[in-house]
Amino acid sequence: MRAATLLSEGRFASARVHFWRITSMHSDPNGASAQWTLKGLVRGARDALPIVPPTLVFAMALGTVAAQKGVTIFEIALMSAPVFGGAAQLASMEAWNPPLTASIIVTLAMITAVVNMRLLLMTASFRPWIGHLPWWQTYPTLLLTTDASWLIAEKYRAEGGNDPSVLLGSGLMLWVIWVPATAAGHVLGALIAEPKMYGLDQVMAIFFVAMLVPLWRGMRKAVPWAVAGAVALAVQKILPGYWYMIAGALAGSVAGGFINEPE
Amino acid sequence: MNPNDWISTPAFIAILAMTAMTYLMRAGGFWLMAHVRITPRVRRMLEALPGSVVVAIVLPGVVKAGLPAYAGLAGVVGIMIATGNQFLGVAIGVGLVALVRYFGL
User: Fold this and answer.
1) Do residue A260 and residue A225 come from a single domain?
2) Model pLDDT for residues A2-34, shown as the tens digit of each residue
3) Number of structural domains, chain B?
4) N-terminal to C-terminal alpha carbon distance within chain A
């Protein structure tokens, strides 16, 4: 009897929480519920235009590295279409050394997961905006989320916009560039017989560091990066394979959680 | 081109696994938000992740490559701070790697 009461109380509590969530989901700061429009789609695509040149450079760099790694053009295009994440794909190339054993495949999946974990935060921030739309509309759109399209959508939202098509439009625009540009980079990369002579074996490191510079927010915020680097170097000496990447990244992340407390 | 050269089975499995992980992250945050609260600490952990990932992936390879890589990285950091132009930064960085190697340093 007591257990039954507890159960029903628990049910009531969770129902209340659920109700609270639904109401808070609907109380969108930008007013009326979100609606899809063609106009929004075009606006999203247009807002993505400034990101097209860096996306091209990134895709070409990835294609070049893939060609050096012996990844076929079909494989890299097939990866680019659904994964659609430059950092994750480029990072995976570091571990992509044939023959692809089961342990390398697990490493590749884990690298992708760790690199893309930031997308959790981004798509979480969409919940109050598009949480009330049907799942078959939201989830396909979410699968096109990139750093750039998230930023575009957040900026658009900050300006009072409410049309989810902007998110979809910017995602589609970048996707249409991303996949063929990776293939084009592969064609170019395959033409270069001595990549090392031209410094191309360091393209990945240099490209990543170019991404890191705008992320600089002072020494304090960079402590996790130092932790990540130190742990990566240490683990590389101890463990075989590519565990150092995952260990370093997770160590840096944990450090960030504990070190970057607001003053 | 021989159709057998298009894609290898392990590569296909690897791409499937990478796709699954990416989709888990893309849909996961949105889904989680309705079911759990993202605490400030978890938020800070996720915010520290992108930079940590980059350093953890890049640093061991750079240390192994030595001086040419250090020169290239110094170049790209300098250009990025001065101009913020990613294309220029990457081009100069890669060029410096090649240059330092050419002089056998």
Assistant:
1) yes
2) 333 333 333 333 333 333 333 344 445 565 567
3) 2
4) 50
